[in-house]
Amino acid sequence: MLHRNPYSDMTDESLMAKNQEGDQQAFAMLYDRYSGRMMAYFFRMLWSDRERAADMTQDLFAKLIKYKGSFEQGKRFSTWVYSIARNMCKNEYRHEEIKSRHREAKGDMPDSTSSQVDLDHSLFKEELDEHLKNLDQIKRSVFIMRFKQHLSIKEIADVMECSEGTIKSRIFYSLKELAANLKEYDPKRTR
Questions:
Q1: What is the pTM (predicted TM-score) of this model?
Q2: Of 71 and 106, which is predicted with more confidence?
């Protein structure tokens, strides 16, 4: 007879409460639930760099262990973990900006490639990912949380610490900017 893991039916918040009490199985269940999601989030947020995304995912879970006491009961675990991940991305952007300035000062310019536009779905996805990288950090973050991670408007508002109306506005402007940059893929456009 197979025994069902008692942790699999627990909410994220209950698992985190048990984790705060030192229950390692509860942490393992949270890791199982969130590691793939967070890896995908970091991959999309950090220039589609798999190695960096994997490192950031491990760093995130190390932070969850180290700072488990800072999780407040009554709050959503998903909001807390995405807030930490978002702050980690902000730090990476700052770090990259400093490295970029250093390269420019030395006269080393990074290579830039442009992809050929085609109606093929895979090329559209590549083009979309490229344009996502060019969005400012807030628009990119909101877009990814909403359309790639499937968080609700409320959850995103909690992560970003702003109103739901502000999130709706940011989504609208993200979509508007992406639509303008990807207009060659508009099926209504005459060729």
A1: 0.55
A2: 71
